[in-house]
Amino acid sequence: MAHQKNQTLNAEVLIVGFENLIDYRIPLFLLLLIIYTVTCIENLLIIFLVYISPCLNCPMYILIGNLLLCEFLYTTDLVPLILHHMLSGRPTISHLGCSVQLSVSGAITIVETLLLTLMSYDRYLAICKPLRYSVLIHNRLCFYLVALIWLVSVAIISGQFYNVINLEFCGPLTIDHFYCDFTPYVSLACSNIMPAVVLGLTVSITLTILPFLLIVLSYVFIIFTILRIQTSEGRKKAFSTCSSHLLVVTIYYTALFCLYGVPRSDQYLNVYKGLSFTYFSVTPMINPIIYTLRNQEIHKALKAAISKMKTFYC
């Protein structure tokens, strides 16, 4: 039994997502490498600024820092191995490696969804309850909530990791995708997949639909509050405090619903793979730009950090 378990853990999974793109392998490799490098620099820079800058020491930027940490971890979980597979003659990953990759990306997705929900509540308080904002949400409470989100996601994914790692496979393992995707991978198992499928569906539905409804509800109250502001300048200022988050939420859920909505049949497989490629590569690069493009506080924090570095080295 132990010998069979070791064989399953070491079983090789063949990733053939780039098989039809073999002629474009080098250009795609360079493109993805550039995107990944830019993504890492952007996300880590803003996380660093949030950590060191007193002017960014508030709930909104604590949440932004954690969200961008999710983007960095998510893309790092997938892209380096994809880059390796692009240049490899036989792109494979072990059953254990595939289970870890699935678990990390799943945990990050849960954290990101809950963080976006908490950020919408933060924006609701800032616009609808400005006089009570500092009482209803503050740094200590924000730290506790973020820690709880990470713990909940790890607990949920630990159960799913246990389900996936104990699957048994009887034949060759081939996934026509760029990475280990849950549905096609689990469908290859010849043991009971119901615990993994049921938990996966429950978590996906609960932690996608419910947070989405809460975000929509928050923005309904926000929009009504903004419309009641008398001056156009006041309305513009109020909307600017939540516009970045609204755009990120729109991109995130549009991509998520498109991925969930595309059928997994052979007819739509290339569409699904294209959407997945955009989701794991382009989205983590765009989000830091959205949050920093017109954000004066981050601009000031960056200038202050550069000035400190110049003073230190000079």
Automatic annotation (TrEMBL):
Transmembrane portions of the chain: 28-53, 60-82, 102-121, 141-162, 193-226, 238-262, 274-293
Chain ranges of the G-protein coupled receptors family 1 profile domain: 42-291
SUPFAM superfamilies: Family A G protein-coupled receptor-like
Keyword NADP part of the UniProt annotation: no
Compartments where located: Cell membrane
Domain of life, source organism: Eukaryota
Assigned keywords, A-Z: Cell membrane, Disulfide bond, G-protein coupled receptor, Glycoprotein, Membrane, Olfaction, Receptor, Sensory transduction, Transducer, Transmembrane, Transmembrane helix
Membrane protein topology class: Multi-pass membrane protein
Family in the record: Belongs to the G-protein coupled receptor 1 family.
Protein name: Olfactory receptor
